[in-house]
Write a structure and sequence with these properties.
The protein is an all-alpha fold. It contains seven helices and no strands.
Length: about 170
């Protein structure tokens, strides 16, 4: 084992929890920006509909789909996480979740249209579901019984702070 110190493992989980919180609430920071609204503009204001520099952005129903796509992926990820960890174990399930997150993030960053953005967010949500079910259990399995609650609580607390900071 490369790192056996539970404090280092818990610190990585806490940092990951904070980043995880950022990812969960990342759309809230982007929704109001003009660059987002113009790039995914569906009218009636802004290019190519009018000469205005202010854009309308996606329609309300489409924006709801973009925002909810991560939650939909999370639901699916949470459903399959137990099955995945039964087959591969928690550590490999967590690693697979990280790979899925990288793939989803690449798709989101390379989004050329709304469909690509939604697909990337669904894939990222799949990872959110897998990781939110696996990481707390993995940390609690590694921690001594007297410190279990502290380590899992710190990781969950970091997720909440990540959401709050990004929101």
């Amino acid at each position: 084992m490369l790192v056996g110190n539970i404090y280092i493992i818990a610190a990585v989980a806490v940092i990951g929890g904070g980043l995880f919180g950022f990812d969960i609430s990342s759309m809230s920071a982007i929704l109001g920006t003009n660059s987002y609204k113009c790039y995914f503009n569906q009218g009636p204001e802004g290019p190519p509909f009018t000469g205005s520099e202010l854009c309308s952005g996606p329609e309300a129903l489409v924006q709801g789909g973009i925002t909810a796509s991560m939650a939909g992926g999370s639901w699916l990820g949470a459903l399959i996480s137990g099955y995945l960890s039964d087959i591969l174990g928690r550590k490999k399930s967590i690693m697979i979740g990280c790979i899925i997150w990288v793939i989803g993030s690449i798709i989101v960053c390379a989004s050329q249209n709304i469909g690509m953005l939604i697909a990337g967010r669904i894939i990222n949500g799949l990872c959110v579901g897998i990781e939110s079910a696996q990481v707390p259990v993995y940390v609690s399995e590694l921690a001594p019984p007297s410190k279990r609650g502290r380590f899992v609580g710190a990781q969950q607390w970091a997720i909440t702070w990540g959401i709050m900071i990004m929101f």
